[in-house]
Amino acid sequence: METNRKVTLNYQEGQDALELPVLEGTLGPDVVDIRAFSKTGMFTFDPGFLATASCESKITFIDGDLGQLYYRGYPIEQLAENSDYLETCYLLIFGELPTQAQRAEFQKTVTRHTMVHDQLSRFFNGFRRDAHPMAMMVGVVGALSAFYQDSLDIGNPEHRRVTMYRLIAKIPTIAAMCYRYNQGLPFNFPRNDLSYTANFIHMMFATPCEPYEPNAVLVRALDRILTLHADHEQNASTSTVRLAGSSGANPFACIAAGIACLWGPAHGGANEAVLKMLDEIGDESNIEEFIDGVKDKRYKLMGFGHRVYKNMDPRAAIMRATCYEVLTELGLENDPKFKLAMKLEKLALEDNYFIERKLYPNVDFYSGIVLSALGIPVSMFTVIFALARTVGWISHWNEMISDPQQKIGRPRQLYNGAERRDYVPEDKR
């Protein structure tokens, strides 16, 4: 909302000063509304959007200095402890926690949409068996618009609602199919008698040869991972979805764009990088030498620190407890790789170098260990991330499309290329 305060900008001698209104959000810093600045004929310059709010949103709030993450006002710690992923999906989409009846209806609707069109399964035959699962995710999710053409009118709220249900329901099925195809295994059909996360684990690991019942402790652990990664405000992939959606592109194409952005190692590949780092360290006896190498800038410490959080990542403590629950349940407390990870954590947390720089373990440090313990290969880590983040993407996409002030995204640039020049014929160059 607009405040009574203004920022006065004196930008050119002989010109009247420009008054820019100050906007105030519910939480977080105030914002200077610079839209009127375009009248000066100049643009602002902010690579990486480090000081620019690209939109208004009611979905997620982050305070990196205080280590706070709220979904629709609810602290992530409370949701991870008391809620589950599907209820969190409802909250992110609709803005409120569901009543018992609303929750039952939502779960029923999502469960009934988990099947994918039979022809969609044939798409996978076009991929090499060793194709990266994220490559398949980008292609198959983008192709969904060819199969569900009855709900592509983005101006129709009912069409948007149906599409959101379909995406939440079908992304786990597609993710499991990517894994099964990559492993040379037959696809598993969804089971309507299982919870959302238990069904995903079933589709990943069940075999037609015998009955399969997911382990409740492991289901809860994976459900927490999904909840903790469901949304994270205006990050790179969410901003990509919003930018693609601002053009009026269909929602399946927008989500595919988000998946492609998430695939980048600087974004969705952090927990994968943690496992690779542990492999490179190799043994507990090498940890001190590795830490010295981090201080000397010879090695990178993955899974510690965060671009947004300047304090402890609020999701990390939850994931740490979950990590120990999983290792205990599977009897992996003495597994060499997991003992290596825990010793690295301990030494880094006790070292003044990391304490002074506030380099605490983040959620990716622990989630990578948990996913590995669950038997999920490293190549699938970012796919799991995409599965979790889908609800955040579609919530932001729906919020943007519903906003009457929404315009197509069109960032400007500071051009520093060649000045105007005339074409020179080839024989005179």
Automatic annotation (TrEMBL):
SUPFAM superfamilies: Citrate synthase. It comes from the Bacteria. CDD domains: EcCS_like. GO terms for molecular function: citrate synthase activity. Pathway: Carbohydrate metabolism; tricarboxylic acid cycle; isocitrate from oxaloacetate: step 1/2. Keywords: Acyltransferase, Membrane, Transferase, Transmembrane, Transmembrane helix, Tricarboxylic acid cycle. Pfam families: Citrate_synt. It catalyses: oxaloacetate + acetyl-CoA + H2O = citrate + CoA + H(+). The chain crosses the membrane at residues 365-388. NCBIfam families: cit_synth_I, PRK05614.1. Belongs to the citrate synthase family. This is Citrate synthase. It comes from Crenobacter cavernae.
